[in-house]
Amino acid sequence: MANKIEKLIFPSGFKCLICGCEINDDVFEICDKCFSKLPFVKGKVCLKCGEPIFSDANYCVYCKKSQPSFTKCFAPFVFESPISDLIHKLKYDGNKFVAKTLSNLILKCFLEQNLKVDVVVPVPLYLSREAERGFNQAFLLTQSFIDAGFEIDNSSVIRVKNTNTQTALSKIERTLNMENAFKVINKEKLKNKNVLLIDDVYTTGATFNALSEVLLKAGVKNVYGLSVAHTIIEK
Length: 235
Hints:
The chain has helices at 32-36, 61-65, 83-91, 98-113, 127-133, 137-140, 143-147, 171-177, 187-190, 206-217, and strands spanning 14-15, 22-23, 72-74, 77-78, 119-122, 157-159, 182-184, 194-202, 222-230. It is of the alpha/beta class. The protein is globular and about 50 Å long.
């Protein structure tokens, strides 16, 4: 599957999504100069949640205190500009064309992990929230995975709680906010599978953790989480 990403080539005549300069065939639709300045996750990261850490420890403060239910989470970027700007353009400005670039970037990150995954599950939105926005950004981020031949399951797990926006909440508040938020409605389809969850941003891990808990109870073998960007909390 690794070589399939090479086939996801944009036609010539596109402009860089960041600086607007003219570019030719480019799978990421970002010029070389801007690509070199992207806030890639570098150095040591928590072995559980993937947060960059700045100590000799193998786990971040939060994962030391209470191990999350997911097997492992990771992201290619730190939640900083210009990646944070691209996510905002997709999620809040409705620029859905940005999703293809972000999807190609996270597919590249995933392939580098060499993980065995049976099915990809985009984190579901509550129905009224998705209707209001007009799309689920997590599903749009699976575009390149679909093109690369991965199985996408957008129906076996649903969001049954219209949670408050997580933006201004503390870690504890985020955890409480996500309690009983998800339900697996097709356990047989996911039983004994290795599942990859897709979302835009990992902040405290409350969403991935809550979703992982219900998936594991439903018989899922391993749950991995992949987001475009990871916020840095521990410094």
